[in-house]
Amino acid sequence: xxxxxxxxxxxxxxxxxxxxxxxxxxxxxxxxxxxxxxxxxxxxxxxxxxxxxxxxxxxxxxxxxxxxxxxxxxxxxxxxxxxxxxxxxxxxxxxxxxxxxxxxxxxxxxxxxxxxxxxxxxxxxxxxxxxxxxxxxxxxxxxxxxxxxxxx
Length: 152
Description:
Elements: H1 2-8, E1 14-17, H2 24-32, E2 36-41, E3 46-48, E4 69-71, E5 83-89, E6 92-104, E7 111-119, E8 124-129, H3 136-151
Parallel strand pairs: 1-2
Antiparallel strand pairs: 2-8, 3-4, 5-6, 6-7, 7-8
């Protein structure tokens, strides 16, 4: 299915998909054709920090590709990093708490931006964007357009 998207959509465009489509293979295909993906990921998703800089004296074995793993769900516990903002989502003003972090997910070379959001009803979602220039608020607003696009 990704080949159809690549044929029909111009480079630099954004594709907004549901969590069912969040896969490392799809992201690699989109990156190859310079497309940006905004999608929801499962609550149990794991990101990886960048690999630490190698020491001057190298030890035996292959150097690490990834840094430490982090369960994204655990980042919701850090209440002091969450920003509160009111955004226009799904046609109404909604107050959210959110934070974003750039981690590795599909590639040890390129990062993705994860946006962790908590609604006023305490519902938690995690969004992923391959475009690191977008702010967390822009990613949340763009993802809310997904339902408007599906309905029309």
